[in-house]
Design a protein that fits this description.
Blueprint: E1 3-11, E2 16-22, E3 33-34, E4 37-39, H1 47-59, E5 65-77, E6 81-93, E7 105-112, H2 113-121, H3 130-142, H4 144-152
Parallel strand pairs: 1-6
Antiparallel strand pairs: 1-4, 2-3, 2-7, 5-6
Length: 156
């Protein structure tokens, strides 16, 4: 069933993207690398409330987020299930150390945008979630300026 979702991409002052490796207990795509945070709004929950709630619950982060785009995708994960989502994509800047929720996240890392692009187009591409690959392709192609703007705000 098609449902609403969101994906958050957090950039630090060095222009690195915060990636998370999904917890092994996740039913879909466990131990795959993905964007900083992603989830679904609760029934009747405004998307603006949901994105900040989940960012705090998963990573202990509070920051401003800016909407980039929306897209629809479907992806099957073997016999375990599938995603069929209308996903809103946001970007924000954070300079601290995340406080990860171990029930959601196995590990995390900051990665420079260019290095991530090389991973995504190289042999490591299969270690990333399908939605993140689609999002990153569009961010890299159409929204690099927003990433640069967040990085340049570091000294402001």
């Amino acid at each position: 069933m098609l449902h609403r979702a969101f994906s958050l991409h957090i950039i630090n002052d060095s222009g690195e993207l915060l990636l998370q490796r999904r917890a092994p207990s996740k039913r879909l795509w466990p131990l795959y690398w993905s964007n900083s945070c992603c989830s679904h709004p609760r029934r009747n929950e405004p998307i603006d409330s949901a994105i900040h709630r989940r960012l705090d619950e998963e990573l202990g982060i509070r920051c401003s987020l800016r909407y980039l785009f929306k897209f629809q995708y479907q992806a099957q994960y073997g016999s375990a299930g599938a995603e069929n989502e209308l996903c809103s994509v946001y970007v924000g800047r954070y300079t601290g150390t995340p406080k990860i929720n171990r029930s959601e996240i196995d590990s995390w890392r900051w990665v420079p945008a260019q290095a991530l692009q090389e991973e995504m187009t190289g042999g490591a591409a299969s270690s990333f979630t399908p939605w993140f690959k689609l999002e990153w392709d569009r961010i890299w192609r159409d929204h690099r300026g927003e990433l640069d703007a967040l990085e340049s705000q570091a000294g402001v």
